[in-house]
Structure formats: C-alpha cells, structure tokens
Amino acid sequence: MRTSLRQARRATVHLAIAAAMAFGTILFITVLLITAVGTLTVVGAWLLPETVLLIRRIAGAKRATVTAWTDEPITEAYQPIKGTLRERLRIAVLDPGTLTDLRWMIAHYVYGCLLVLALPLWPVALLVDGVRSGPLRREPVVLPLIVRLADLEARWSTALLKPSPKARLAERVEELTQTRAGAVAAHEAELRRIERDLHDGTQARLVSLSMRIGLAKRAYDADPEAARRLLEDAQDQAEHALTELRLVVRGIHPPILTDRGLAGAVRALAASSSLEATVHVEGLEHDEPRAPAAVEAAAYFVVAEALTNAAKHSGSPRADVHLARVPKGVRVTVRDEGRGGAEETGGTGLLGMRRRVAALDGTVRVTSPAGGPTMIEVELPCVW
To answer: Is residue 215 over pLDDT 70?
Structure first.
C-alpha cells in the first residue's frame, strides 16, 4: 500500500505539472496571435523567430518532465536559428521541429488536463484500496489507475515530441557537415605538420649531406684524410635523416600497428612514455579480430596524445589506459590523477583529437574537474 501511495502521489504531481503547462500553453495563444499579426504586417516579422525559440523552450521543459517520469530521455532535433533576419525566418518556418512542437502544443491543450480524471480517484482509492490493503490484505486496484494516467500522458507526449525522420535527417546532415569540416581541418593540420617536419628536419639534413659529399669530392685528391672525415660526417647525417624520415612515417601511420596490432602498439607506446602507464586490454589481443586500420590508427593517436598531455600538464606520475572491444566498435579510456582543468582551448591537443575521432563518426568525452582526475573516453564505431 505504501509503495502504491508513493507512486500515485508522484503520478499526481506529474499530472499536475502537465495540467499547469497545458493552462500556460492556452495563455500562450495570445503570443501566437500577436506573432501571426506582426508577421503578416511585416513590421513584427522579427517576432516569429523569437516565438519559435520560446516554443522550443516550452517543449524542452515538457521533455524534461516526461524524462523525469519515464527515465527515458526524448532527444531534440532543431536547426539553430541564427544569421540575418531573412535566414532566421526561413529556419523558423522550415525547421521540421517547429511543426512537431506546434502539433504537440495543440494536442496538449486536450490531453494535458488528465489531472481532472486523477483527482476524483483519490477518495475512491483511499476507501477501496484502504479496505483491500488493510483487512483483506490484497493489492490496491484504484491507485494504479492514477499511475496509468500519468503513463498515458507521458506516452502521448513522447510520441508527439520525438523528432520526425525529416528532423533527424536534417540534424544528421548538419552533424556530417561539421564533421567533414573538422576532418578537412585536421587533414590540413596533419599535412602542415608533415611539411614542417620534412622542411625543418629531413630536408635540412639532406642539404647538409649533399654539401659534405661535395666538399669531400673536392678534398679527395688534395687531402684524403679530410675527405674521409667529411664522408664519415655525411654518413652520420644520412643516418639522422633516415631516423627523422621514420618518425615522419610513424606519424602518418605507425608501422608498429601493422606488426603488433592496437594492443601491442599501445603497450609499446606506454612503455616509452615518461609516465608509469598501465595498459588494460579487453577483447583486442592477437587472437581476436582486428578493427579496421583507420580505427586502430585513430585509437593509437588518441592514446599518444592523451599520454603526452598527461606528461606535460597533469603533474601526475602515472596514467591508466584501457582498451576494450564493444559491440559497436572500440572504446579507449585514458585516466590520470593529475591536477585536472583540461580545456580544448588551452592548446592541449584535445581539439585535434576530437576532429580525428569525429572524422570516423566517433565520440569523445572529456571529464577534467579542477583538482583532477582527468579522464578521456573515446568510442570509435566499426563493424566486427
């Protein structure tokens, strides 16, 4: 009986909030009429985008109350209203989310008042269920009806407020547009890095090598000993140039990924780190199916960037790396117990990491409160 009372009380509160919101949306008709008149007369056209934004906030509040009741969030899919007045008007009118919210608001005028059916059930419930749960020791039958009314209101709101397929498609197109822009920016940054490494490192050593070989050729007949020393220096320069070329190639796609796989490559990366890095692997060993090369490379660079950031900025002597195979891809988690406060605008490489992961339609979650710890969690989708 106590459980049923508690659930019915919570359902009544939910229905009361819904009724108050329905009453508020009825009063909102005045705002809609003013907006319609202003838009038709052109003078008040600026009211339309602002009214649509207000409707979005009201619908968002309703999504929050339904989520609190059902514990199942209702996603939003809106196009951002920005730009010139003409652009804002176009987005406000053509956004599929606007029609979805208006449809819900009109329907909510009717079913939002289910509280009037729930309130009369309380006296009956206290009488009938009090007798059934007291002397008769049976389950309540009237109190659950109040809960069902709240469930019905939540189901109708969910059905009306969830984004339409057209809205989801528009949101996906916008997301892919931003992802492509980020991928292009990351690609350009990578090309600039490779060009800088080749120009400042390998190319300079090759020029020095050519000069030393030329000097050795000139000195060969007159001073063979000096020519021999120049050739030895040239050999050293050639070895340094080869080393730098290997580093550049490793930056494009580490050969160790091909040889050892993701788990072995990350273990080698952790062993060469200045931190005491511990690596935990689940489902990505040598006898397991491997992820695509692009996914392995992205995961490897995420770990490399995260360990570098931890060594430079965190102040922590150790870090934990966790690689796991999940049903829809690969999850990478890097955690350190440092000072925290990591920000994408702080030059810590998080923005480049996010762009690299977004190019593969992955997600990045960074948790770094002041005082630590810092945890970077990345999920890269792939088909096993």
So the answer is: yes
CA nearest neighbour of 153 among 81, 68, 228: 68
pLDDT per position as a tens digit, 61-72: 999 999 999 988
- CA Rg value for the chain: 32
pTM exceeds cut of 0.85? no
Q: Where do the DSSP E strands lie in the chain?
A: 276-282, 318-326, 329-336, 363-367, 374-381
Neighbouring residues of 81: CB distance < 8 A, sequence distance ≥ 6: 49, 52, 53, 88, 91, 92, 95
Which residues on neighbouring strands pair with residue 364, listed in sequence order?
378
At 148, phi and psi to the nearest 5? -65, -35
Contact 329, 381 (CB under 8 A): yes
Q: Which two structure tokens, joined as six digits, stand for 16?
A: 């009361």
Tokens matching residue 295: 């996914």
Cα–Cα dist 218/93, whole Å: 79
- The first and second tokens of residue 214, run together, are 């030329």
Residue 253 structure tokens: 């796609």
- Category of 340 on φ-ψ map: left (φ > 0), alpha (ψ -120 to 50) or beta: left
List Cα–Cα distances, 87 to 81, 93, 149, 325, in angstroms: 8, 10, 42, 44
What are the backbone angles phi and psi of residue 229, rounded to the nearest 5°?
Answer: -65, -40
Are 112 and 21 contacting, i.e. CB atoms less than 8 angstroms apart? yes
State yes or no: cis peptide before 373, omega within 30 of 0: yes
User: Longest C-alpha distance within the chain, in Å?
Assistant: 120
pLDDT of residue 78: 86
The secondary structure of residue 349, as a DSSP letter, is: S
Phi first, then psi: what are they for 238, rounded to 5°? Answer: -65, -40
> Taking phi first (over 0 means left), then psi (-120 to 50 degrees means alpha), and beta for anything else, what does residue 261 get?
left
Quote the CA–CA distance of 213 and 243 in Å, as a whole number. Answer: 19
For the residues 337-351, what does the mean pLDDT come to?
75
Residue 191 and residue 307: Cα distance in Å, rounded? Answer: 23
Query: Cα separation of 169 and 147, whole Å?
Result: 35
pLDDT single digits (tens) 254-269? 777 777 888 888 898 8
pLDDT in tens, 107-155: 988 888 888 888 888 888 888 877 767 666 677 788 889 899 999 999 9
